[in-house]
């Protein structure tokens, strides 16, 4: 085959693969015309949900769903039994390596329910002994504490569930200062809370449970906590979404539920609503996902991936739906100002600095394909969203996820991938939307500070690392391929012309960790995945990287489409506190985005 014939064949493969990915992605829309996706089933979520429902049932909480609980508890226990890993531990998802956190959560619920639900709660002694040996080998309680360091957001809830299962004593569950929840919301960032901003419900409920089960010996603190408990519970009830699920998250909602029961608040309204959420969230096989959905996130990712390949008739329904998701009032949970978007359209969402840029970029993609009146709506929404982002920027120039300056814990600090996303969105609004003209100077200043932050964070090898994504096979569970790919998209290609320019270093990093098969994993030596290959390819095409490496990556991606593996998801997502998840649509979205960019690059040539 001549070089010309080979090139034509490669381009044909790209066109064919893109067409298939496009159709698969469009077919994944729901009846309303947007994407909802499907989050992975989670052993961690299932263990916490079963424990919460068991506590509600055992302590005779008068919830409306009481008679439904035993069958779902039994189904959850059966699911856990059949999804243990060969090393006798459990991972967060069915594709995850075992970890100490999930394994201890499962072991505690097996202990708490032992023999109380028939055969579903009866386990062979060898089965339990093997898991106990795994826990001992990894390091037990101290391993849990080491995993999360100074962040108590997840280590304390894990140990609370272990205390309920009799695996640890209550003195090993650290007291959380739930009295701080009674401070005005705008004081939280000064209070140095030991949990991240989104974990306020856990702070209240777990703190109260620990106080009731093992009160402090210092009488003045005991008196203070007794005095503020009614106020703290009012805060908890006020911030509970109408669905009953805090953040729409099974683990957080479960921890709150079991903690309130442990505190003796058997008939509290929060328990009633949370139980309703947990029963509504269980899947037919008896498992629970990590969250209800990422509908807003996967919809904006899909719109940005499809670009001009989105059918004309799909534009306005998605546009209307997205505009309705923008927050118009102060959020009762994080006290966030109006103007942002959350990851979901459900009431438990919280506006954040990753979904908001995603929504801005998607709306601007749709802007050129809709009416003049809709363009005005988009411009107004973009103006408010940019104003929201500007108000969230941290002093170091980066962007946090939820709250400016709330604390020093990882999920409240500035992060590299989110900062890059915010920079892309602000740049696009400045280029397209006239309504930001009144604060253009402020935007320019924010951009300069944001880029300076990114340059300071870039590693010596050229990589950036993300907050919300990882790779279980990479050192420290990091995913520098995701982080570098996303950060490079924030730079114009012309900034990579100098050999020592930071974007050029990022390009060199991505090219250096490409696998021999042509694909990319999360870092050097990690097995290639559709998601990571798509991300790396999109970035390299954008930055005009080495054509031969782009061609090899595109060839690997096309092979995955041909073999049907393009729909095989990898657990690269982090859902708070390093809880792994995978999303059914991620491989399709990232493959579509990459193949479209490669196709368009060929067309330009």
Which descriptors would you attach to this protein?
about 600 residues, mainly alpha, Glycosyltransferase, two-stranded antiparallel ribbon, two-stranded antiparallel sheet, 22 helices, 4 strands
Can you walk me through this structure?
The chain is mainly alpha-helical and 605 residues long. Among the domains are: 156 residues, Glycosyltransferase; 248 residues, Glycosyltransferase, CATH 1.50.10.20. It is 55% helix and 1% strand. The protein contains 22 helices and 4 strands. Strand 3 and strand 4 form a beta hairpin. Helix 7 crosses helix 8, helix 8 runs antiparallel to helix 9 and helix 12 packs across helix 14. The chain is globular, with a radius of gyration of 24 Å.
Gist?
This protein is mostly helical. The chain has 22 helices and 4 strands.
């Amino acid at each position: 085959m001549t070089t010309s014939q080979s090139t034509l064949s490669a381009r044909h493969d790209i066109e064919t693969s893109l067409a298939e990915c496009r159709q698969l992605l469009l077919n994944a829309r729901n009846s309303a015309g947007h994407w909802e996706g499907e989050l992975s089933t989670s052993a961690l979520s299932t263990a916490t949900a079963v424990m919460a429902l068991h506590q509600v049932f055992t302590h005779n909480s008068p919830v409306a769903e009481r008679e439904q609980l035993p069958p779902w508890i039994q189904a959850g226990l059966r699911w856990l039994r059949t999804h243990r890993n060969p090393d006798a531990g459990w991972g967060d998802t069915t594709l995850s390596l075992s970890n100490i956190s999930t394994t201890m959560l499962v072991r505690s619920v097996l202990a708490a329910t032992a023999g109380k639900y028939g055969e579903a709660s009866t386990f062979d002694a060898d089965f339990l002994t093997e898991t106990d040996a795994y826990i001992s080998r990894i390091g037990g309680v101290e391993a849990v504490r080491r995993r999360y360091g100074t962040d108590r957001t997840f280590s304390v809830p894990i140990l609370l569930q272990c205390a309920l299962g009799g695996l640890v004593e209550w003195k090993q569950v650290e007291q959380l200062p739930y009295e701080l929840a009674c401070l005005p919301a705008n004081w939280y960032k000064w209070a140095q809370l030991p949990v991240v901003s989104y974990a306020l419900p856990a702070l209240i409920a777990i703190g109260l449970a620990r106080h009731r089960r093992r009160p402090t010996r210092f009488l003045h603190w005991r008196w203070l906590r007794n005095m503020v408990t009614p106020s703290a519970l009012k805060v908890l009830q006020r911030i509970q979404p109408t669905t009953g699920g805090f953040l729409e998250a099974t683990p957080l909602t479960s921890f709150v539920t079991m903690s309130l029961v442990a505190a003796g608040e058997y008939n509290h309204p929060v328990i009633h609503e949370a139980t309703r959420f947990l029963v509504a969230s269980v899947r037919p096989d008896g498992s629970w996902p990590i969250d209800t959905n990422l509908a807003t996130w996967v919809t904006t990712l899909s719109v940005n991936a499809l670009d001009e390949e989105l059918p004309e008739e799909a534009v306005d329904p998605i546009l209307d739906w997205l505009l309705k998701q923008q927050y118009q009032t102060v959020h009762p949970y994080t006290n966030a100002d109006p103007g942002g978007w959350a990851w979901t359209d459900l009431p438990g969402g919280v506006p954040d600095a990753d979904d908001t840029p995603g929504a801005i970029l998607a709306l601007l993609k749709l802007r050129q394909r809709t009416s003049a009146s809709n363009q005005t709506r988009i411009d107004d929404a973009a103006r408010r969203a940019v104003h929201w982002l500007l108000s969230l920027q941290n002093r170091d120039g980066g962007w946090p996820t939820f709250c400016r300056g709330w604390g020093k814990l990882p999920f409240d600090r500035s992060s590299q991938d989110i900062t890059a996303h915010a920079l892309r969105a602000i740049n696009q609004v400045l280029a397209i939307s006239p309504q930001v003209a009144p604060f253009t100077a402020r935007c320019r200043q924010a951009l300069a500070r944001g880029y300076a932050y990114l340059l300071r964070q870039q590693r010596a090898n050229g990589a950036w690392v993300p907050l919300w994504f990882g790779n279980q096979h990479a050192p420290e569970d990091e995913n520098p391929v995701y982080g570098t790919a996303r950060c490079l998209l924030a730079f114009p290609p012309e900034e990579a012309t100098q050999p020592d320019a930071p974007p050029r270093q990022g390009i060199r990093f991505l090219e250096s960790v490409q696998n021999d098969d042509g694909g990319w994993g999360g870092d050097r030596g990690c097995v290639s995945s559709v998601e990571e290959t798509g991300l790396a390819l999109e970035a390299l095409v954008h930055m005009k990287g080495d054509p031969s490496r782009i061609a090899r990556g595109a060839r690997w991606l096309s092979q995955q489409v041909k073999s049907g593996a393009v729909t095989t998801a990898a657990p690269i997502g982090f859902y708070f506190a390093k809880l792994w998840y995978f999303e059914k649509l991620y491989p399709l979205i990232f493959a579509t985005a990459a193949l479209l960019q490669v196709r368009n690059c060929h067309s330009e040539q």
